[in-house]
Structure formats: C-alpha cells, structure tokens
Amino acid sequence: MVSSRSLLTVFATFIAVAASQKCYAVDGTALDSTYTPCNPSAKHSSCCASTDVCMSNGLCMGTTNESIGMIFSRGCTDSKGKDASCQQICPGVSDDSNGLKPVKAWQLQTCDSGEYCCRGADDTKSCCDNAKAPKVTTTFSATLQLQTPTATNPVAEVVATAVSTGTPFEATTTPTAHACAKEKRETAIVGGTIAGVFSMLIAGLSATVYWMYKREKRQRKLKEHYEEQFSQTNAYRKALASSAGSCRGSVLLDELKLKSSASE
User: Fold this and answer.
1) pLDDT higher than 50, residue 210
2) Which long-range contacts (CB under 8 A, 24 or more apart) does 8-16 make?
3) φ, ψ (nearest 5 deg) of residue 14
4) What is the three-class DSSP state of 31?
5) Contacts of 14 (CB under 8 A, 6+ apart)
6) Rounded to whole angstroms, how far apart are CA atoms 118 and 93?
7) Of 8, 103, 116, 169, which is least surrounded by CB within 10 A?
8) CA geometry: angle at 12 spanning 7 and 16, to 5°?
9) Which residues contact 107 (CB under 8 A, 6 or more apart)?
10) Residues 6+ apart with CB under 8 A from 112
11) Torsion angles phi and psi, residue 194, rounded to 5
C-alpha cells in the first residue's frame, strides 16, 4: 500500500511541475491562471482555458455559452511556440484577418465549402468570405482529453471526430463506455419496437382469420338451413300434388259409376 509520504511527494511534484509550466498565448504574451497546460507532466504542452476541453491535436473545444462546440488554438507553454506540442494551425500569421491587431488566440470557423478559416477568438465576423483570412483544408481527427482531478490517474481520452456542418465548428463525441450502453439501449428500443409491431400484425392477422372462419361457418349453416327448408318445401309440394291427383282420380271414377247406373 502506498504510504502517505509517497502520496504527498507525488502531489508536491505535480504541483511544482504545473506551477513551472506557464501558458503563453499565440502571440507569446503570458496568460493568466485561467489557462492551464493540457499535459502538465510533459516538458511543453498546448494550453486551453479552464472551461475548455483539451484535444489531442493541441486544440481546445469550448464548452460554455456561445463558444460551446467551437474549436480554438489558445497557445502553449513554449513562449515562442516552436515546440512540437504547440499547435501551428495558422502558421505565419500574427494579425487577425482584418489586419488590425495581433491575435492572442485563434478560433477555427467551418465554412460551407468544407474548409476551415482562422479568425481571432474574439472576432464576431465570419472569415469564410474574407480573402485575407487563413484557410485550413486539413481534416481534423482527435481525441478529447478529459483531465482527471488527481495526479495519479492518467488522462482519460474520448474519441471525437470533427464534422464540417457550418458555424460554429462542431465535434461529435462518442465515449466508448457510454456509446456501448447507448447502442445497447437503442438496439433494445429498436428490437422492442419491431417485436411490438410484429405482435400487432400477428394479432391483427389472427383476428382476421378468426372473423373469416366464423363468417364462413355462419354462412355454411345458413346455406344448410335454407337447403333443408327448400327440400322440405319441394317434398311438401310433391306430396300435395300427388294427393291432389289421387283425389281427382277418385272423383272421376265416382262420376263414371253414377253415369253407368243412370243409363241402366
């Protein structure tokens, strides 16, 4: 088991390293304590605002108010920005697209053409139609580095794919564990829906077959009833006709006998 002294030593070392890594803006000016290195244990690291989420490619994703989902290049711990960890997303450009002032941080705006353009982080004007604005044609793919609260835990990574969908720049995050759970839930929902629809179809089909069976049975009984009644009626008529014929014959015979007696 790790002793308390060892934990204090690790914690103190972590604090010392973090304190020694000061963040600098894109133009080299020192940033205040609201900007922190994304990888404090490294010699140099890209920096993001405390409210941002660090990305593995050195960029930052905004998470508050109007900046949510936007991608920024805030700077790094190398004041000259020469270290490989410092993101040079808009290389060779030090002024905003209007040429008015140096840029402390870049914001990547997604254009309808599928390209990205760089504008100052505090610039509210679109840079897509600005010929002076730096254009970036690289397709970004990175992971979101979620900082853990303790120095002993590694940086957690969540896969994210950049999507060109217009302004502001948006990224779709898919945490592995949550994605699996979500996929299972969606699969269960889809499976339940299909099972429900299938059950309804079976129930409807069964009801239709039963109704047709009952109808056919009723019609068959009616047919048998009417046929029986018809046969009985025909038999009665034949018997009546036969009875009437025999009666008529006896009447004629009686008439002949009377006529014979009279002639004598």
Assistant:
1) yes
2) 10/151, 10/152, 11/151, 14/40, 14/41, 14/151
3) -60, -45
4) coil
5) 40, 41, 151
6) 10
7) 8
8) 150
9) 70, 71, 72, 73, 118, 119, 120, 121, 123
10) 128, 166
11) -65, -45
Pull the structure tokens for residue 147: 């900082």
- pLDDT 10s digits, 78-101: 988 888 888 877 765 555 555 557
**Whether the Cβ atoms of residue 44 and residue 50 lie closer than 8 Å to each other:** no
CA separation for the pair 45, 14 (Å, rounded): 15
Alpha-carbon 189 to chain mean position: 12
What digits encode the pLDDT tens for the residues 123-173?
Answer: 888 888 888 888 886 666 666 665 544 444 444 444 444 433 334 444 444
Helix ranges, 123-175 (H): none
- Cα 214 vs. chain centroid, distance in angstroms? 47
- In the chain, which residue ranges form alpha helices assigned H by DSSP? 4-20, 176-263
DSSP 198-262: HHHHHHHHHHHHHHHHHHHHHHHHHHHHHHHHHHHHHHHHHHHHHHHHHHHHHHHHHHHHHHHHH
Instruction: Find where tokens 């140096």 sit.
Output: 102
What residue type is 112 in one-letter code?
D
Distance CA 40, CA 21 (A): 7
Strands 47-49 and 116-120: unpaired
Please give the structure tokens belonging to residue 76. 């790094």
**Whether 44 contacts 131, CB under 8 Å:** no
